Amino acid sequence: MSVSLATERAGGPPHGRHRPGVLELAGLRRRYGRTVALDGLSCTVAPGQIFGFLGPNGAGKTTAMRIVMGIELPDAGAVRWGGTPVTHADRLAFGYLPEQRGLYPKMRVRDHLSYLARLHGLSAGQATAAGEVWLRRLGLGAQAFERIEALSHGNQQRVQLAAALVHDPQVLVLDEPFSGLDPLGVEDMAGVLRELAQAGVTVVFSSHQLDLVEDICEQVAIIDRGKVVLAGAVRDLKQRGSPTLVMEVEGAGSDWYAGLPAAAAEHAGPGRVRVMFHEADPQLVLDRARAAGTVRRFALEEPSLSELFLQAVGP
Amino acid sequence: MSAASAVRLVAGREVRERGRSKGFWIATSLLLLGVTAAIVVPAVLGHHRQQTFRVGTVGAAPPGLLSSVTAEAAALGGTARVRALGSAAAARSALDADALDLVIESGTAVLVRGPNTDPSVATLAQLVARDVAVQARLRAAGVPAGRIRGSFAAAPAPVRSLIPVTPGNQASRAIVVAGTIILYLGLVTYGGWVTSGVLEEKSSRVAEVILAAVRPRELLAGKVIGIGLLGLGQFAAIAAAGTIAAISVGRHLPPSTPGAIGLIAVWFLLGYAFYCCAFAAAGAASSRQAEAPVAAGPLTLLILLGYLASLAIQSNPDGLLAQITPFIPPLAPMTMPARMLLGHPAPWELPVSAALMLAATYGLVRLAGRAYSGTILRSGGRVALREAMRP
Known about the structure:
The complex is a heterodimer of chains A (315) and B (391). With 315 residues, chain A is an alpha/beta fold. Helix content of chain A is 31%, strand content 28%.
């Protein structure tokens, strides 16, 4: 799915508001019976940013995204865009990829896309043109007149993404866009999101695979049990967290690091052992390693997002 | 985008997509074919064929008896063909061989084949037997044969109907009978479409994509309006086909026909408006196709009750049911047309019945709309009604 967004825009944006606005989730609360899905969740997304909404399954990501899209109402709190509460008309400028994908199985691909575009306010002519543009971009030109149910799973996913993009949204809300994609699919999807963000679209997506997406998003909010536990630019978060010292030594006995505060050790090739240290004096470790064998690798690595998450929620 | 244009778009999709499906056109063609055949076939086969009663006599028939047989047969809408047979045995074997319908033996007894006799033959036998008995008594009392014949030839007393029986109200009865069947089939069919259409949106999960752009009540309104328009179109096509077929086979259509069709169409709309949102709520409360008929069961049962009440009203259009059921909104769409077209309703009955219907529709649409919004995005098992209504 190679997509070039800089070219070929289908008509002008149809929606009322044309302002790059900050998207703000303020103190969202939602409970279902006794289950608390959102417990005062707050975060802010700058326009044109790729924002990762990360956390384990059941953390409240889908509920928060549904509230942003107006599909569910919060018990308390508000969603603001450009400083004012989001209205139904504003949301026509939002694009949405729900976690549970779905389209009308019997509808033809082209008709389906132009129908969705029209629901978001495009005229009949604009809608048809936009549908065709997106079909071509996603390499589905030959399938334009097929029914959705006749498409392969991968092509259905493409149409689903086109359905979120066909009306040229200013805010894109994607719930688990990477789930079920192979590594190439992940790369394609990441490329699409980057291009959209470059074109000024605010991209908010959720994922439970923290390490898969840490290179894709600029800003993240990591949530757990309905609350943000960690938020900020990915680079800042990583620099703020304590780095891991990684050491690979060849020809040493497996007990060379005895007495040092090692976090984990693993076999890393013939006669080679890799050892990770969280809190150890690098000089001391290096001295001990050189005395024991040949040092093949000596590096300070930034923590991954999942390590940061585990540190934040704590034992 | 305004709510009205959202509703228009949703309704437009409904009409386009269903109008494209083969099933819709097959069902419509079958309906049109059925209605046309129901009118044309009886006319071609001649449904007013007269019955000929084959009567045999044995021995001497008293004077006047044969003319009374002819008169009684005519009263039953048929003719009598009388022939004399030589012996009782010959008459019995002719009766046995189905060459005769009844035998008058020596003017004293009447014989038919068996207990499963054609009802009109049995009636004729009864009448003839009575005549035979009365004539025998008159003869025994010494009344001259001429006077007996004369008294039996007397013209029958004219029977007048309180409700004038004209070709006009015969035709409107046919319209009510056919119209009620179409109303019943229409409400159940289009209601089923609404249920399965809503369920399709829910189970394919497309509802979440759509509801990100339109409000639940707009999606609901568009869906039921789209299906309602298709239903009305089908109804109009059936009415047109029926009218053309009736005219082309030379049926007399009373001037009241367009009014009667219009009245049925209006009650179709009222009934559809009343039931459609409840059918949608039944679809939204289900999560699998197999559950939908169960959830919609109470609704189809109510419509069936209305149809049965309408059948009763068709045979007794001023009876108790005819006076009560038009004021029970779930039954009114089926019963009020029969009451209006066949009975003698007071002038206030139509407006009151329609007003009650509209008030009930408003209430039910609000309730069902809320149940629909509360359940359309909830998956996993049927949703209990009480839970669906929770805000």
